[in-house]
Amino acid sequence: xxxxxxxxxxxCLALIGAGKDDPIRHAEDNLVKEYELxxxxxxxxxxxxCSYFHDYPxxxxxxxxxxxxxxxxVSDDGRVACYVRWQLMSGGPxxxxxxxxxxxxxxxxxxxxxxxxxQERELxxxxxxxxxxxxxxxxxxxENLIALADRNNLSNLNYRDELYDHLPDCxxxxxxxxxxxxxxxxxxxxxxxxxxxxVNETSNWIDAGKADVAALTALDKAVGILRMHKAPxxxxxxxxxxxxxxxxxxxxSLNHGRQLDKLAQLxxxxxxxxxx
Length: 276
What we know:
By secondary structure, the chain is mainly alpha-helical. It has 12 helices and 2 strands, in the order αααααααααααββα. It has a two-stranded antiparallel ribbon with strand order 1-2. A hairpin with a 4-residue loop joins strand 1 (234-240) and strand 2 (245-250). The longest helix is centred in the middle third of the chain and has 32 residues, at 135-166.
């Protein structure tokens, strides 16, 4: 056997050994198997919190190493990739250090797109053929479609929530959080609680005097755009109105309870104080 062939084999063996010794790579392999099994067998128990490295502690893990690992290509299936990334964050600090903010925010922005719940226009063809006695079956069908979308978004939402919490407090974090909330509502995904959390944390950060003029200006611009944003309308039930079957629709609002109006006013008041 030639020296070149032996060198290739030695290189491959070294890679295999490195995989066993590298806690991140080992975790990625295990977590891919966990979620693929869950996708194949829905009754399989999976993790419901970010806990992998709590169960399997590893030394020498840093925020930088964990953040770099979030870029690893672990699966072509975004659901699996999000599950792995979500769990990897259990090995890092509660928040990434400020010097990693730019990289962490970029990862947050790059989260895979959410699977949208079915909209009225997609379901109208079957609605038009429905009769009074079909109401129950129509609602079961709609509930199943919503459940499928929610299931496909499960790991993505867990990943987004965890990564948001790991971001160091800064204007970019809160702007991304607000934009993420808008994206959730655009996909028909319940995002009201997450939005209220982001608005509250942004307000507290401003009240604590941590926002400089540049941060306030960036936040003011983002909030101004989102105040005008209208999410699509999604059906939540089918109802027979006595003549035809119709959808009972919902259109969630980013400005529910005028929370964005209040945040915009806080930003303006703080800017006025700073310039007074």
